[in-house]
Amino acid sequence: MSERSPALADFLAQLPFELDAFQEAAIAALDAGRSVVVCAPTGSGKTLIGEYAIHRALTRQQRVFYTTPLKALSNQKWRDFQQQFGAEQVGLLTGDVSINRDAPILVMTTEFSAICSTVLPLVKWVPPLRGWKWWCSMNATT
């Protein structure tokens, strides 16, 4: 990469290895303000791009949403990110669990992400102890 942002330089200083070309390209796209979709085999380093996006958002005092397709994976990433970024920085939202949901890093299932994108613009208030699955089931339209 030709010109590195302070956030990227700080992030790279923490790594014990060099980035692969696809990681460099994805990070350059993020830094240019573009969206990124990474399709690569398991274990190839896709998560590192997400970790950089989280690091970058935190340095800008922004909030970031990390989605996974499975609740078990969301739980694992929640634990991993707590260790990496600090427990107070990370929240978890699934269909039946809400932990630290005002945290700057919010890990959620894609199911919950879909609910947020379709229902959230319509929601004025959700009972705090019930959760989204309950709210959606009680407010479903036919």
| Name of the top-level CATH class of the largest domain | Alpha Beta
Rg, alpha carbons: 17 Å
State the CATH superfamily name of the largest domain.
P-loop containing nucleotide triphosphate hydrolases
Low-confidence stretches: 118-127, 137-142
> What is the β-strand count?
4
Strand content: 5-15%
User: Which term fits the overall shape?
Assistant: globular
Count the DSSP helices.
6
Mean pLDDT: 80
Order of strands, widest sheet: 1-4-2-3
Order of helices and strands: HHHEHEEEHH
- CATH topology annotation of the largest domain: Rossmann fold
Query: What is the terminal separation in angstroms?
Result: 52 Å
Number of domains: 2
Q: How would you classify the helix and strand content by structural class?
A: alpha/beta
Which architecture of the largest domain would the CATH scheme give at its second level? 3-Layer(aba) Sandwich
Main sheet, how many strands, which sense, barrel?
4 strands, mixed
General description of the model:
With 142 residues, the protein is α/β, with parallel strands linked by helices. It folds into two domains: 1-62, no CATH class; 63-142, P-loop containing nucleotide triphosphate hydrolases (Rossmann fold, 3-Layer(aba) Sandwich), CATH 3.40.50.300. The chain is 46% helix and 11% strand. It has six helices and four strands; from the N terminus they run αααβαβββαα. It has a four-stranded mixed β-sheet. A hairpin with a 4-residue loop joins strand 2 and strand 3. Helix 2 (21-31) packs parallel to helix 3 (46-59). The termini are far apart. The relative contact order is 0.10.
